[in-house]
Specification:
heterodimer, A: 359 residues, alpha/beta, nine-stranded mixed sheet, five-stranded parallel sheet, 12 helices, elongated, B: 547 residues, TIM Barrel, 24 strands
């Protein structure tokens, strides 16, 4: 079964018709989630423009912890492959990155390229779990939290603080690296923490080569960020209420909009696995979700349409965490009847027909 | 459909044509004058008719372009969109780029810096640029795999096969090298690199890498010569790097990117690093005249706020101190680096004024405009939307003098611009912006209006205000379809992305697969640009290699 309207199973055409009717009646709709292949995200932006919706990806919180700092001060970045291939010192900030496969790869390898090739790699931790599962030198976070800890570390590096302290020792290790990398999760570190950390990396580059590597969010944020930028000229959270993309990360935070009663309809796009938002059943909504997912049922939203899952039952351009770029994931099994981009396009086409008929 | 463009001043320097006449079009091609009654007649009375403009070097897609939008979201403004393409008025977007080129009469634009490691996202972005045909140059010269081959002296065939594979996999239109070896050197601690300096770890030099790429491009038969971004961009004495690189080509075809940024002679030989620079436009021009194998695009400066975008991380790292506003992004990528540094070209500033003058001087001194391509290295020297203004300055000495009068006096002291009386003709403008860049890209059916040409045509009202004339074409036809009328887009067509047809050597495919799996834990398929990844069909159009 591919589609449901108000809990009842139906065919795709009827669901598309119902979705178009729902959106045509909405005055302040939102398009959220966007945990999907790029062709679907592209179709979602086009639909949002057509209906004057605002757009907010599931990855928004993580992305904006990075983007706020980036637009204020910039940054110095590198890639996972450059980290495992070149880095002789890797500092992991916080707890979150430790769950990622890259930590194991860093711990189990040594630099093979560049001037540090053949050297031993030092793994350092600031405010990490300290569970001893991976060999590293641990430095606890300060009571003020990670961002404050990074600030103190930076002060030691700059010479604003001095002394035989743990952070003083860590600062010396970082400055001695030939190719250093700091791995962090922007959502955990927070916007100000990211800004402080990027400032520290810039300071380090006065004496050596050092780069930041934020771990990717698991919801396609890095891929859709690129598409959003080339489609609208802006970062992802935009509103089309005035038929021009207006970027405002606070105003177009979908959770805030719904909690404030500003949205009267929603379209949730998640052809890839994504946690169901609390608000999905609280307002007239369309859910375009991966077939076989827990949300692919009649009770997930007023209208539910199940579509191919990219990399499984559909092909799609997706963020490749290992490669840190967009790559194509072909279907690995039989193709689904519907694709997310196809459904979104059909809804938009139907809306155009409705508008033409009403003129 | 038979179309007659009637009564315009037809300017096609490739046919020695500059006279009032007609251009006939059928099925997307220019055809001979017909006895039949045309299905459509376009009245070009009082207009200048040229082939569609051809852009060879404009940063319109890719990871650094995306980064620039995130770093400097205030650079472009979005305006309320009228009916039509939903994002054409979203400042800096792909649709905005396509619309603004088309309004000026341009019909193809090439992104000059596509790293193979992120080819798919670059190609997806290019495909979203409407109206124009597009293309991208595959960047090589800093990748460990290539440098390993050279270090191990594997020979020309291996380099050729690796270059061919990179172009085929990324679906590029040509090959570019950017400060060859510079990104690798930067990652290993160097802050400056000259043509023959040793690159750490590999024992190579820029000269060795670049000449290997020059050979590979010739052996593959890439129509566009190797597109070279030299060492030492933007510093006093950069003219030495330019001339040394020109001579290092040893007669092989070579194209120099944004020559203006290298036409900086040392002003004070006693203090070369601190004494500033003076125009080396005459020196560069003389060197170019002695080397007919070479071409360059200009990289003209336009005053105002911009953002510089380059894979030359070595240069961008040095340039970070001059960031305005004070923020910047540098990325140590998987082969090339990358840097995004905002910059303000100040009209009353000595440095900016001199840069502006040098670019104009290069164009006005050139005896062969077809080898002197108009670019601003968008957005590095300024936005491509400044082309009409630059054309005005080239065509109108009085206009030039008026602008110089409002700029810094250094122009008179350190450049020869003020003494140049030359005014470009329409034919020379067509060489600079049409026939020259089309020949450079090896696109034989573009840049002219002879029979068989692609029906990409720009029609401008003849206006003494050349800025107004070239900013908003009266009509633009793409493949015979009218896409612009009176400076506004009237048909939102999609062009094609041009890709070179090049075969990959099976042994190199296998070897690269092993290398990439070892380095990335992912193979060649993760570098590919498959048709299935695109939301629309029929994105690419093939361009053949030279026989």
């Amino acid at each position: 079964m591919a589609a449901w309207v108000k809990g009842g199973a139906t065919d795709a055409d009827a669901a598309v018709e119902a979705a178009a009717t729902l959106l045509a009646a909405a005055r302040t709709p939102i398009v959220a989630g966007l945990c999907a292949e790029l062709s679907a995200v592209r179709a979602a932006y086009h639909l949002a423009d057509a209906i004057g919706a605002s757009v907010d990806p599931l990855a928004g919180t993580s992305l904006y912890a990075e983007l706020g700092s980036m637009s204020r001060t910039g940054g110095m970045l590198t890639t996972p492959a450059e980290t495992t291939g070149r880095a002789d010192a890797v500092l992991i900030v916080g707890n979150a990155p430790w769950d990622r496969p890259i930590v194991g790869e860093i711990a189990e390898s040594a630099p093979t390229r560049g001037r540090a090739a053949g050297a031993e790699r030092t793994l350092l931790s600031l405010g990490g779990p300290g569970n001893g599962a991976t060999r590293h030198v641990a430095y606890p976070a300060e009571a003020g939290g990670l961002a404050v800890s990074v600030a103190h570390l930076r002060a030691y590096l700059k010479g604003h603080l001095a002394g035989e302290t743990a952070y003083g020792d860590l600062a010396k290790r970082l400055a001695a690296a030939q190719y250093g990398v700091v791995l962090y999760d922007a959502a955990e570190l927070g916007e100000l923490g990211v800004e402080m950390l990027q400032g520290m990396v810039k300071d380090l580059n006065e004496v050596t080569r050092f780069f930041a590597l934020p771990v990717s969010d698991p919801f396609q944020g890095r891929a859709l960020l690129q598409l959003a930028a080339w489609t609208t000229g802006q970062a992802p959270r935009v509103g089309f209420g005035r038929h021009v993309p207006e970027h405002d990360p606070w105003r177009f935070d979908s959770a805030r909009q719904i909690a404030a009663g500003e949205a009267d309809a929603a379209l949730w796009l998640a052809s890839l696995p994504a946690p169901r938002p609390d608000w999905l059943g609280t307002l007239p909504a369309i859910a375009i979700v991966g077939e076989g997912s827990p949300e692919a049922t009649g009770d997930a939203a007023e209208i539910v349409i199940a579509v191919g899952v990219p990399g499984e039952s559909a092909g799609g351009a997706l963020w490749n965490d290992r490669r840190a770029t967009v790559t194509y994931a072909p279907p690995t099994g039989p193709s689904a009847e519907l694709t997310a981009a196809g459904v979104l396009g059909a809804i938009q086409d139907r809306l155009v027909e409705m508008k033409a008929a009403s003129c | 459909m038979l179309i007659r463009i009637q009564g315009g001043r037809v300017v096609d320097p490739t046919a020695g044509r500059d006279a009032v006449g007609d251009v006939w079009i059928e099925n997307g091609r220019v055809v001979a004058a017909s006895e039949r009654t045309p299905d459509q007649t376009i009245d070009a009375t009082g207009c200048v008719v040229m082939a569609g403009g051809v852009e060879v070097h404009s940063h319109i897609a890719g990871g650094n372009v995306v980064m620039s939008r995130l770093l400097l979201p205030e650079l472009y403004t979005s305006e309320a969109a009228p009916e039509g393409h939903p994002f054409a008025h979203a400042g800096g977007s792909a649709a905005w780029i396509g619309a603004n080129y088309a309004r000026m009469g341009y019909t193809i634009a090439v992104e000059p810096a596509m790293p193979p490691a992120s080819a798919l996202s670059t190609q997806l972005e290019l495909a979203d640029i409407p109206l124009l045909d597009r293309g991208a140059l595959t960047v090589m010269g800093n990748d460990d795999h290539l440098l390993q081959l050279l270090r191990q002296r594997e020979g020309k065939a291996a380099v050729r096969d690796l270059v061919a594979l990179a172009v085929a996999t990324s679906r590029g239109l040509g090959v570019k090298c950017i400060n060859a070896g510079g990104a690798s050197a930067f990652k290993d601690g160097m802050l400056k690199l000259s043509l023959d300096e040793e690159i750490p770890v590999y024992g190579l030099s820029t000269r060795k890498i670049m000449t290997a790429l020059l050979d590979a491009v010739e052996e593959i038969g890439v129509p566009h010569p190797l597109h070279v971004h030299c060492n030492n961009l933007g510093i006093p004495g950069a003219d030495e790097s330019f001339v040394d690189t020109l001579e290092a080509a040893e007669g092989r075809r070579i194209h120099f990117a944004h020559a203006q940024f290298y036409a900086y002679g040392v002003a004070d030989p006693e203090n070369p690093a601190t004494g500033g620079f003076r125009s080396a436009a005459e020196r560069i021009t003389e060197a170019m005249e002695k080397h007919p194998n070479a071409t360059f695009d200009v990289g003209q400066v336009a005053f105002g706020q911009t953002v510089t975008i380059s894979l030359d991380i070595l240069r961008q790292f040095a340039g970070r101190k001059g960031a305005n506003p004070k923020k910047w992004i540098l990325t140590a990528g998987d082969a090339e680096g990358g840097g995004v540094v905002p910059f303000l070209y100040k009209p009353r500033g000595a440095v900016s004024s001199l840069q502006w003058a040098i670019g104009l001087e290069l164009m006005l001194l050139s005896k062969e405009p077809e080898r002197t391509i108009l670019t601003t290295d968008h957005p590095n020297g300024g936005p491509f939307t400044d082309y009409p203004h630059i054309i005005h300055l080239l065509m109108d000495k009085e206009k030039r003098d008026r602008e110089i009068a409002g700029l810094h006096k250094v122009i008179g002291e350190r450049s020869g611009l003020c003494a140049i009386e030359r005014e470009y003709s329409f034919s020379e403008i067509a060489q600079l912006t049409r026939s020259g860049p089309a020949k450079l890209l090896g696109l034989t059916d573009r840049g002219h209006l002879r029979e068989g040409a692609r029906a990409d045509v720009a029609i401008y009202r003849d206006d003494r205000d050349r800025t107004a004339m070239f900013a908003r074409a009266k009509y633009v036809l793409k493949d015979g379809v009218t896409i612009v009328e009176d400076g506004e887009v009237v048909a939102w067509t999609s062009g094609h992305t041009l890709e070179l047809t090049v075969e990959s050597d099976k042994a190199m495919v296998a070897r690269s697969e092993t290398y990439l799996q070892d380095r990335f834990g992912a193979g060649l398929s993760s570098f590919e640009v498959p048709d299935e990844a695109f939301p629309k069909a029929d994105v690419f159009e093939e361009v053949a290699c030279l026989a």
